[in-house]
Structure formats: C-alpha cells, structure tokens
C-alpha cells in the first residue's frame, strides 16, 4: 500500500537473492564450528534461551497444537478481552488543557510567509535545573536500544565532516539545526511529499522540545533502499562509513533509521497524521470483536511493486484452492476518485488475520496492520524500520515463510482458529505495542534521543550550510493547500512538552543482544517444525 501507481523507477523488477537468514544461521551455527566444545556450549546456550522463552512467552503445547481443535463455538470465548497488566488504563481523562496553545501564523498573503520571531518559547518549560521537579518519564521502550547499535559504527572514530560530506552522494537534503532553528539545503527532489513531511517532523520536534535539541548537521536520503554497505567499511584501513539517515535498513547496511513521513501524514493517499489515526484505529478495532471477524487472512495493497507480492497473489481463494487468504488489489487512482472510502484504515480490522508483506523495501503499512487486534501474519521481512526490531515472533506476530507462502498462511490460520485464546493474545500484544510503545510521544522521543546521541559523535562544529534557507512551520505550511495544509495544521505541535523525554535505555551488552536474536530464531524454528508436521499430516490424509 506504500506505493502509489505513479511511483516510477522503483516499482517492480527489483529482485534480489537473499538467503533465508532466519532459518539458515540456526542450522549453520553448530555445524560450521570445528570444536566440539564450543558447539556444545553454543547449543546449550541456545537451548537455555529457547527454553526460557518458550515456557514464558509461547505457552504452546507442541504435541497437541496440531492435533486438537478447540471448538470455535461458545460465546464465552468472545469475552476474552485481555487487559494487559503492562498498560493499565488511565483512570482520569484530562479534557481541557489550561495552557496556551500556539497556532500557525499565516499572513493574509500566504506566498510571502515568513518565520515569526519571538513567537514561540525558545527554551523548554522543563529546564536542566528543575529536572528534579519534573522527573523524566519512565524508561523508553526497548526498541530505543537500537539507537546505540545504529550509531555504533562511529562510536570510536566519531563523525568527521569529511564522512558527512560523503553521505551527500545520494542524499535528498542536508538538514542543520543551529541554535534551535532549522536550515535545509536541498539536493534533489524526493518522491511525492516524503521530504516535506519529514522536515515538518523535525520542525515539530523542535517545537515539542525547544532549546533541547543540540546543534547538528545531517544528510537525509528519502529513497526506499538502504545504500551504505557494511562490507565496504570493514577492515583496518577502511574509511568510516558516511552517516546517512533514511527510513529503513537491513542487515547488510549501516544507514541510520529514522521515523518515516507518514507519522505526520501521507497527503497523496489521504493517510492522516499518526496521532489522530492511532485514535481512529483504536476505535475501529472495537467495532468487531476478534471472534466475530472473518476467519481468514486479509491483505490489500499494490502487488505490482514487488515480485514477492505477486507471488502472494497466488494464495488467493479460488475454485482449486482454499489457502485461507483473501487478497485484494488497492487501486489508488480509483480510490482517489471515490474519496478513499474503501481505503479507510480504521475500518480494515474485519479479518482475524492480516498479512504484512514488504513492497520494494519496508512498508509504512506495517504499523496500520499491527494496530488491528487481528493476528499479523508477517511474511519474512528483509528490512527494518526504527521500531520493528522491537517485535517478537509468536508474541506480536506470526511468522510466514516467504518461499512457500500459501502453505504457511493456511497453516497459520488453521492454527489460530484452533487456538483462539493464543491467537487473540498475539493480536492484542501487537495492538498494545502500537498504541502504547509507538504513540506519537515516543516517535518524538526516539528522534530526540537519536539526534542527541548522533550530535555527540560530531567531530566538527555544525554550521548553517551556504545554500540553505531557514525553514519554520509557517514557511512550510502557509503556502500549501489541500491535504498537505490540513495534515500540517493537524500535526502542528501546539505547545512544548511539559516533561522531559523518556529515559534512554542502556546499550545491549553483546551477550544479551545475541540472546535476543537467537530467541527469535528458535521461536521461528519451532513454528517451522509445527508447520512441517502439519503438512506431513495433511499430505498423508490426502487433503
Ligand atoms: C503576495 O506577495 C507576492 C510577492 O510579494 C506578490 O507578487 C503577490 O501579488 C501578493 N498577492 C496578494 C494577493 O497580495
Ligand atoms: C481474490 O478472490 C476474491 C474472491 O474471489 C476476489 O474478489 C478478489 O478480487 C481476488 N483478488 C485478486 C487479487 O485477484
Ligand atoms: C510523559 O508524561 C507527560 C505528562 O505526564 C505525558 O503527557 C507524555 O505523554 C509522557 N510522554 C511519554 C513519551 O509517554
Ligand atoms: C506436502 O505435499 C506438498 C505437495 O506435494 C509438498 O510440496 C510438501 O513438501 C509436502 N510437505 C510435507 C511436510 O511433507
């Protein structure tokens, strides 16, 4: 759904050969090691981690999973709304905010919009001194720990101006923050309004945390695919990698991931800013209880942007096959003409299972899919964005194999329909994650911490770029109309934060990070084993 039909160049034909890295390293890890002792140690470690994880998180019984079918009939099962103890519901609701709200100051002649001086506070209402009076909120969600990993390539060398300038090669713009003001030097147009809404996000961050964002210069690339290949920057004499911000990364690259434009709105396809959409999604979710939803896996999007999506289309229900999938093509042109009635995201939680599949790279649709209480069937992804590394298989989503999608989907849906409670728990864990750990406050806090840590690495004094213009909310929003103006007005930060950002969690120690990765792999392995068992049984009974 991320790509509209007018997306040129990057659509389709972009095939890659990837090794199936979720499965294969698990097999390789033992056999590649010659010493029996280290093999034994690693196996033991994996077993311990896997055991601890499976007993607490999965609570699934491997032997009975595929044989028993729980009756899907009783009405009592509809009462299984899980209130997560991790996220107690707020007891009081503050309806009216007494503090003054700032609004956009657009002059009558909107083509001459200028940046107002002294209109906004330049320092935060919480200072360094009174941090004790306004203690920062609790620790940030776990996925913030990846900020340390993303910046690790520069942790010992720092970032020199020379390295920064090398990132210019593919960047769409350079952004400088100097004394709380933003200056942008544009190099090349981005697709649609990606760059515009990304820069808008930076502006709003400064409004939320005035006086708190350090001076810096950074390069931003708005194109889908990560480009800074790790392999080119290893070895004693290799240069340090260019620090390049973009929306996603993968295991082979060192690009620094940053929240994508859609958090402030995607004007071209009528996707609202995240804050209000998140609320609508929460309400939309309540319209149909999980148990009353269609017991199939749903997907709607543009299959033309990637081969893997075209492959998925083969799993649609047909006269010959029932793979438990219901797949639809998103026709953005038609939807645009009809006012996007069919693409309202908040009313797309009508199936028990929703498929997430990457397009040409990561897809902004992932958060919308996870936000339904439905079980997300995640076709093995190759890219990550800033928050997806916090997701765990069998806890937040159900993994689906990419090379045998139809069988994998059929198995997942059959499993869920015969393990109703566990399936609902997975759906709920994902929507809780999205509602609580990915709320807009945390998106800003992620930006805050990433930029703060990044600025500490700079080995040069950031300056106003020569060809840059000062940009503020007025110069951006006032000349615009339609959805762009509407979404900017809506996502405009109206007053500074009253408390500091959440506290940054410490880096993973290497053993813990290894444990996290292994835990995911062993869960995936286990699910694969169930699937193989299921299919050998199905094959035997000849269905
Ligand atoms: C707005 O300002 C521009 C540039 O100064 C000028 O060309 C234009 O005529 C003005 N428009 C109106 C409606 O005053
Ligand atoms: C999948 O099947 C349904 C039901 O037959 C149909 O309405 C839909 O258009 C099909 N989707 C695709 C992508 O062919
Ligand atoms: C921090 O606390 C304030 C006030 O209690 C709240 O409005 C804000 O949403 C919190 N921030 C986060 C990131 O949870
Ligand atoms: C089941 O049969 C299909 C089709 O013949 C085959 O591709 C698949 O590998 C078999 N699966 C198992 C687990 O035997």
Automatic annotation (TrEMBL):
Domain Glycosyl transferase CAP10: 212-461
Pfam families attached to this UniProt entry: Glyco_transf_90 (PF05686)
Superkingdom, taxonomy of origin: Eukaryota
Keywords: Membrane, Transmembrane, Transmembrane helix
Transmembrane segments: 38-60
Keyword Transcription regulation appears in the UniProt entry: no
Keyword Transmembrane: yes
Annotated PANTHER family: KDEL LYS-ASP-GLU-LEU CONTAINING - RELATED, OS04G0534100 PROTEIN
Official protein name in the record: Glycosyl transferase CAP10 domain-containing protein
Lineage: Eukaryota, Viridiplantae, Streptophyta, Embryophyta, Tracheophyta
């Amino acid at each position: 759904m991320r790509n509209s039909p007018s997306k040129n160049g990057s659509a389709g034909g972009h095939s890659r050969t990837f090794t199936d890295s979720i499965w294969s390293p698990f097999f390789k890890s033992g056999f590649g090691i010659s010493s029996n002792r280290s093999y034994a140690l690693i196996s033991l470690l994996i077993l311990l981690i896997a055991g601890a994880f499976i007993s607490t998180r999965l609570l699934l019984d491997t032997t009975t999973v595929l044989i028993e079918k729980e009756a899907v009939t009783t009405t009592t099962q509809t009462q299984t709304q899980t209130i997560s103890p991790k996220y107690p519901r707020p007891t009081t609701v503050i309806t009216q905010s007494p503090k003054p709200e700032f609004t956009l100051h657009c002059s009558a002649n909107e083509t001459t919009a200028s940046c107002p001086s002294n209109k906004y506070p330049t320092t935060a209402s919480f200072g360094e001194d009174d941090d004790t009076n306004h203690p920062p909120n609790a620790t940030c969600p776990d996925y913030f720990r990846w900020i340390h990993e993303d910046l690790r390539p520069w942790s010992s060398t720092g970032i020199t101006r020379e390295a920064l300038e090398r990132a210019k090669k593919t960047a769409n713009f350079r952004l400088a923050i100097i004394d709380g003001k933003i200056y942008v030097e544009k190099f090349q147009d981005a697709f649609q309004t990606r760059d515009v809404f990304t820069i808008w996000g930076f502006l709003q961050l400064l409004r939320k945390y005035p006086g708190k964002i350090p001076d810096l210069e950074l390069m931003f690339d708005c194109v889908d695919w990560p480009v800074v290949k790790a392999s080119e920057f290893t070895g004693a004499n290799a240069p340090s990698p260019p620090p390049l911000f973009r929306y996603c990364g993968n295991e082979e690259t060192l690009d620094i991931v940053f929240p994508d434009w859609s958090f402030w709105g995607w004007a071209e396809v009528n996707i609202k800013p995240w804050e209000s959409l998140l609320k609508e999604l929460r309400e939309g979710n309540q319209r149909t209880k999980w148990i009353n939803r269609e017991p199939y896996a749903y997907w709607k999007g543009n299959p033309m942007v990637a081969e893997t999506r075209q492959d998925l289309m083969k799993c649609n229900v047909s006269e010959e096959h029932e793979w438990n999938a219901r797949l639809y093509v998103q026709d953005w042109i038609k939807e645009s003409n009809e006012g996007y009635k069919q693409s309202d995201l908040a009313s797309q939680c009508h199936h028990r299972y929703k498929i997430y599949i990457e397009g040409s790279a990561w897809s902004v649709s992932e958060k919308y899919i996870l936000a339904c209480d439905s079980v997300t069937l995640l076709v093995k992804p190759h890219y990550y964005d800033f928050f997806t590394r916090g997701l765990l298989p069998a806890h937040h989503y159900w993994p689906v194999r990419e090379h045998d999608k139809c069988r994998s989907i059929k198995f997942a849906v059959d499993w869920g329909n015969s393990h109703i409670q566990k399936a609902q728990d997975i759906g709920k864990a994902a929507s809780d994650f999205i509602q609580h750990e990915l709320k807009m406050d945390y998106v800003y806090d992620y930006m805050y911490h990433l930029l703060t840590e990044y600025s500490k690495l700079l080995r040069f004094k950031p300056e106003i770029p020569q060809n840059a213009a000062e940009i503020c909310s007025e110069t951006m929003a006032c000349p615009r109309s339609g959805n762009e103006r509407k979404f900017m007005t809506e996502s405009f930060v109206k007053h500074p934060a009253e408390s500091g950002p959440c506290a940054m969690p410490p880096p993973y120690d290497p053993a813990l990070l290894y444990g996290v990765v292994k835990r995911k792999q062993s869960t995936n392995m286990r699910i694969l084993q169930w699937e193989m068992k299921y299919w050998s049984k199905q094959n035997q009974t000849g269905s």
